[in-house]
Amino acid sequence: MFSSLFINWNPDVVAFHIGFFAVRWYSLCWCIGLLAVYFLMHRMFREQKLTDEQFDPMFLYCFVGILVGARLGHCLFYEPEYFLAHPLEMILPVKFTSDGSWHFTGYEGLASHGGTIGIILALYFFARKVGLTYLHVLDNVAIVTPITAMFIRLGNLMNSEIIGRPTDVPWAFIFERVDMVPRHPGQLYEAICYGIFFLIHWWCYRKWPERVGTGFFFGLCIFLIFFSRIFIEYTKENQVAFESGMLMNMGQLLSIPFVLLGGFFILKGIWHR
What we know:
Elements: E1 7-9, E2 14-18, E3 21-24, H1 25-47, H2 52-55, H3 58-77, H4 80-85, H5 88-91, E4 94-96, E5 102-104, H6 112-130, H7 134-158, E6 173-175, E7 182-183, H8 186-207, H9 216-232, H10 250-271
Parallel strand pairs: 1-6
Antiparallel strand pairs: 2-3, 4-5, 6-7
């Protein structure tokens, strides 16, 4: 018998319609997260006496870097056999059927590890274009990145995807579109963590603004996000079949290099003179 405290979860994936066009919660959460980063970054650039000409191209670089990196990361890390056999589906938001036809699906599958790699590479080219030091750009973006990550995980929650393992904790969610089993709301755990991490970043930035450009905030961001990811993954179901039986799943294994890299940059930023 299930406890009455369990939360039955089955929201409509569509937030609202504009004519015949459906705006899904997942897309809406992405947009809110990116807009929050845009306005916060604009404020930070002005505080640091940087020009709008240096700021304006950054949003496009970040958007493309995250989207391309996250998409390729999912395809190559989690389903390489399928997508290497269907390379067009990596870059096009469609799925081809056996009879040669296709249907629009949107980008089903985005990996945060790939998105992180994508934005790191994109910001390198951005820094060269506008004449800023690479670490200065990385630190600024890292301060506000958890806001976007929080909204993305809330989007996953609205989609009832990346679900947790079965549990009997009183705050368990029953994802009705998946099954009627109480499960950990792993997406919500991550969203809460990322919200807390943003507050930590913002407090550190206000206390030590001179550390922007040392790599400290970049290191703190990726260390906190991926260190927490290693533990939260234990509450989540495996995303692909080959993870069954593994001591650590793909998400955890991919997090380890980021944790080590983050620790290095934290120490570098602390020791910087």
